[in-house]
Design brief:
This protein folds into 2 domains: about 250 residues, no CATH class; about 90 residues, Pdz3 Domain (Roll), CATH 2.30.42. Helix content is about 50%, strand content about 25%. It contains 9 helices and 10 strands. It is elongated, with a radius of gyration of 28 Å.
Length: about 350
């Protein structure tokens, strides 16, 4: 039950902000919005405001924004009511239409930035200190007499203001004995250590792990770190995708079953971990929707560009064929993802 609630919670966030991106960009652009719905199926609550009907539907997964002149209406004269051309989606300039379409997935990415920022602001960020947390048994530091709790003050008379400098200094002085000044319970201790090459890390080390502390940061620093974290995840997704395409790593993809399973694992680790997972998933959803596949937002943008190059909308028959191809591709992806999900579940057992 907890997994189901968490799954609904996660997808509610993803869907709401995705559709809100389409909605707010359409409103700002002057496009008439008939409906803004959260959920699918029968209406359980709704109201009208500024000529838009806001709905909450029974099934809390999914949602939609219905605009005047949106794709699927531009090739027909049937509309809910006569709408001025300056309020129709299909009569807006290409750039405006592309923005309305793209702001859904971009809002998913922006949502991830906000979630990460809130996590960093609430929890703080880990900061490496000069304090030694653990010692590798029989390593150079252990043999020299360094113990956990010691604080590194200087190395070769160089004062350590930034703990990140420690690894750099050790690696640069790989052939020399290091003269380290430590603070041990308020007493200054001088110790000589000879670095040793570590094949696992591909560099010289003395066999210590530094301690970390949690540092509270401002909301502006949290937003900056949230943005950087999101960009790093996007870069990692792109690099992993290229490796899967080139065959360097096996193809791994998760469908609804896999996402539900991961959601259940995330919620067991606490609410903040669930939020972190939601942010990562929001990035995936945003990037996936930008793929140039008909029926996705990315495919919609490609169709808009094609129409601009042709100088006229695509015929209804061609549109139906394009969407049929897009839906077929989506079904193949869904089936493959479900197969991978089931395989992982069975294999894990």
């Amino acid at each position: 039950m907890l997994t189901i609630i968490a799954f609904i919670f996660v997808f509610s966030i993803l869907v709401f902000f995705h559709e809100f991106g389409h909605f707010i960009s359409a409103k700002i652009s002057g496009v008439k919005v008939y409906k803004f719905a959260f959920g699918m199926g029968p209406k359980i609550f709704g109201f009208y405001k500024n000529e838009t009907e806001y709905l909450i539907c029974l099934i809390p997964i999914g949602g939609f924004v219905k605009m005047a002149g949106e794709m699927g209406q531009e090739n027909t004269e049937i509309t809910i009511e006569k709408v001025p051309e300056n309020q129709r989606f299909d009569k807006k300039p290409l750039g405006v239409r592309a923005l309305i379409v793209a702001l859904g997935p971009f809002m998913n990415i922006f949502t991830a930035i906000i979630i990460f920022s809130l996590i960093f602001f609430i929890m703080g960020v880990p900061v490496i200190t000069n304090n030694i947390a653990t010692i590798v048994e029989n390593g150079p530091a252990d043999q020299a007499g360094i113990i956990p709790g010691d604080k590194i003050i200087t190395i070769n008379s160089t004062k350590i203001d930034n703990p990140k400098e420690i690894a750099e200094i050790i690696n640069k002085n790989s052939d020399n004995i290091l003269h380290i000044t430590l603070d041990r319970n308020g007493k200054s201790i001088n110790i000589a250590v000879m670095p040793k090459y570590d094949e696992n890390y591909n560099k010289f080390r003395i066999g210590i792990e530094l301690d970390t502390s949690i540092k509270k940061i401002s909301i502006f620093s949290a937003f900056s770190k949230g943005l950087l974290t999101t960009l790093n995840i996007i870069r990692l997704i792109f690099s992993n995708t290229i490796e899967m395409i080139t065959g360097k790593v096996p193809v791994e993809i998760a469908g609804p079953l896999g996402i539900a399973q991961m959601t259940g694992e995330a919620v067991k680790l606490g609410f903040l971990n669930l939020l972190y997972f939601t942010a990562i998933l929001s990035i995936f959803i945003g990037l996936f929707n930008l793929l140039p596949i008909p029926a996705l937002d990315g495919g919609h943008i490609i169709i808009l560009i094609i129409e601009r190059l042709r100088g006229k909308p695509l015929e209804a028959e061609k549109m139906n064929l394009i969407y049929l191809i897009g839906i077929s591709i989506m079904m193949i992806i869904f089936i493959f993802a479900t197969y991978k999900d089931i395989s992982r579940i069975l294999f894990s057992k």
